[in-house]
């Protein structure tokens, strides 16, 4: 299961729910306002790194660029829309 | 599987999610219904929506059984965080924990969150 | 693979429809078939031909109608959700059709993957 | 007192319009004047006369149109927000008028209180 | 300033922002999904009581009843829509 | 006073809020503009929205000065929580803290949050 998170971790509990209700090793894709969780150096970074212990995290390039976020946490993988499609080929999806 | 995770009335997600469950039931799909996070508030008992002007749709959840939808679950921690027990709900879902929720998701083909 | 797409929010207020469009385009470019895009909840509002965004902005309905014309993808707008929001056959744009919620169930059965775009 | 009301969400998807309506009714019953209800962002969608909710549900547009008829309150639908969402003079219901965003500024100047109903 | 909060404290940071950016003693009105913060016995109760140290809290009766929430935290005042109007008579409003 | 507290693009609140600021400026109102919470992301520099198809509206914030809107503030803690400084923004608001935000709100008659 690929978990899709599109809301800011500063404003919404969606990322926490995705982390809580997901099997270990199932990937999380951050897109739209969800990409702020991928930004390095924020107050959320520690928590996001914890989640990375259980889940590979991806972040959508188009939404990172749109928001001017270029410094992302080490270990988070940037994907373009083609990469998004490839993740969906590999997994069913849950949209939080 | 249909997952309810939003509170009723503030947004329509839960109500239109319920419409979707009933349609899927009519298609004779082997459906599971799951309540997590604020979704458990959608089946809280004692609702009286008169003062808001919005229709109370919680009784419709009682119709799930009539539609032969019998796999109905609620997340333990979501209940506890909201100080509720199954006695506070209009239906009697089976209580499961977050790891069971995660496993159930992995086992399903169709998956909608409302 | 056979994909289905479910859109739950209207144009402009949320990014859901834009993201779904970019995803759909990339999926088709990779050779996947999109069996159906289903518009539910406020998603039905994407189908009105009356929208007139500013000249320097994207036109969400036209983007989708063009996509339907180019790919032959079926777009279904949920009738119950549409009626309560003022969307009917008089305002619906080329490429969109009003249909029952059962077509979402059918999509879930027939598609290998259904991806939901929401608030 | 002189009240203004600002509504930022459409009907049904959010409770904003319902809450604004109950508040407006209570304010008028207490003897206040509502100078204007301003519909902005997705709030413009409350004004379409095409909505047809199920028979056992409330009809949000008719509730508002009746309120305008009963109280003479002015309802302004922001033109820019309306155009991008497919709301124009052809679909707008009785009691609603399309107007510029400047009328929200004027409302903020003239009213003693402006209350916003949003997502 | 009367602070209006209409989202669930379990899902949204609106109540926290209202508490953070408000002058001491300015009232908070919970309505729509915001009323869940008024419910007694939840995991949020401790935090809500802290906020009550700085702010009187009100909860809208119509939205409490709609959601079947009858056991509310001691010290939170239930108001009907007329009471909502009275609070607005006394204060300018901020909608979070 | 107009307060921005939502991130750009995911929702339209910030963009239509900006339209409102510019109109208020045209009415020659003595406006203050404040960025708190995720609202500071609306003025983050380096945006390139090409991949989303959505228009980049952040340059319009630079027009605030042309509209004689000079009282522009940003909340210190919101910046810090997001690892940003004023150097990362397309405009240069004055930095204030949460208690100053609260005081400013109390002093204003007109008040919109987007």
Features:
heterohexamer; B: alpha/beta; five-stranded parallel beta sheet; 4 helices; 5 strands; C: alpha/beta; Hypothetical Protein Ychn, Chain: A
Summarize the structure.
Chain B is an alpha/beta fold. Chain B is built from four helices and five strands.
Strand order of the largest sheet of chain A: 4-3-2-1-5
For the biggest sheet of chain C, the summary is:
5 strands, parallel
CATH class of chain A: Alpha Beta
Looking at the overall shape, the CATH architecture of chain C is 3-Layer(aba) Sandwich
Helices of chain A, by number, come to 4
Description:
The complex is a heterohexamer, with 2 copies of chain A (96 residues), 2 copies of chain B (114 residues) and 2 copies of chain C (119 residues). By secondary structure, chain A is of the alpha/beta class. Chain A has helices at 14-20, 45-52, 61-66, 81-90, and strands at residues 2-5, 28-30, 57-60, 77-79, 93-95. Chain A has a 5-stranded parallel sheet with strand order 4-3-2-1-5, sandwiched between helices. The longest helix of chain A has 10 residues, at 81-90. The radius of gyration of chain A is 12 Å and the shape is globular. Chain B is an alpha/beta fold and 114 residues long. Chain B has a single domain, classed as Hypothetical Protein Ychn, Chain: A, CATH 3.40.1260. In chain B, 30% of the residues lie in helices and 15% in strands. In chain B, helix 3 links the parallel strand 3 and strand 4. The termini of chain B are close together. Chain C is α/β, with parallel strands linked by helices and 119 residues long. In chain C, helix 1 runs parallel beside helix 2 (60-71). Chain C is globular. Helix content of chain C is 34%, strand content 22%. Chain C has one domain (2-117): 3-Layer(aba) Sandwich (Hypothetical Protein Ychn, Chain: A), CATH 3.40.1260.10. Chain C has 4 helices and 5 strands. The model of chain C has no long low-confidence stretch (mean pLDDT 98). Chain C has a 5-stranded parallel sheet, with helices on both faces.
Secondary structure elements and pairings:
The complex is a heterohexamer, with two copies of chain A (96 residues), two copies of chain B (114 residues) and two copies of chain C (119 residues).
Chain A: E1 2-5, H1 14-20, E2 28-30, H2 45-52, E3 57-60, H3 61-66, E4 77-79, H4 81-90, E5 93-95
Parallel strand pairs in A: 1-2, 1-5, 2-3, 3-4
Chain B: E1 2-4, H1 13-26, E2 32-35, H2 58-61, E3 71-75, H3 76-81, E4 94-96, H4 98-107, E5 112-113
Parallel strand pairs in B: 1-2, 1-5, 2-3, 3-4
Chain C: E1 2-7, H1 16-29, E2 33-39, H2 60-71, E3 75-78, H3 79-84, E4 96-99, H4 102-110, E5 113-117
Parallel strand pairs in C: 1-2, 1-5, 2-3, 3-4
Helix pairs in contact in C: 1-2
């Amino acid at each position: 299961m690929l978990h899709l998170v599109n809301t800011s971790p500063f404003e919404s509990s969606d990322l926490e729910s995705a982390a809580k209700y997901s099997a270990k090793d199932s990937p999380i894709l951050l897109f739209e306002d969800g990409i702020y969780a991928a930004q390095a150096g924020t107050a959320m970074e520690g928590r996001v790194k914890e989640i990375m212990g259980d889940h590979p995290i991806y972040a959508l390039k188009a939404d990172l660029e749109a928001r001017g976020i270029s410094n992302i946490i080490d270990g988070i993988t940037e994907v373009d829309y083609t990469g998004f499609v490839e993740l969906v080929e590999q997994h069913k999806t849950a949209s939080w | 599987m249909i997952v309810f995770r939003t509170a009723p009335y503030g947004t329509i997600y839960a109500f239109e999610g319920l419409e979707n469950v009933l349609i899927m039931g009519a298609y004779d799909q082997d459906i599971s219904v799951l309540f997590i996070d604020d979704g458990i508030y959608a089946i809280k008992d004692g609702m009286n929506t008169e003062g808001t002007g919005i229709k109370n749709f919680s009784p419709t959840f009682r119709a799930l059984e009539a539609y032969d939808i019998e796999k109905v679950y609620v997340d333990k921690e979501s209940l506890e965080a909201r100080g509720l027990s199954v006695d506070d709900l209009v239906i009697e879902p089976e209580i499961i924990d977050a790891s069971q929720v995660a496993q159930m998701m992995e086992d399903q083909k169709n998956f909608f969150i409302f | 693979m056979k994909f289905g797409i479910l859109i739950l929010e209207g144009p402009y207020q949320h990014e859901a429809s834009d993201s779904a469009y970019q995803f759909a385009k990339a999926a088709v470019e990779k050779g996947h078939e999109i069996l159906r895009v289903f518009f539910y909840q406020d998603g039905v509002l994407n189908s009105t031909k009356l929208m007139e965004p500013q000249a320097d902005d994207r036109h969400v309905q036209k983007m989708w109608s063009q996509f339907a014309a180019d790919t032959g993808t079926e777009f279904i707008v949920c009738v119950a959700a549409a009626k309560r929001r003022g969307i009917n056959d008089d305002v619906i744009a080329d490429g969109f059709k009003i249909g029952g919620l059962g077509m979402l169930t059918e999509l879930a059965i027939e598609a290998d993957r259904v991806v939901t775009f929401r608030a």
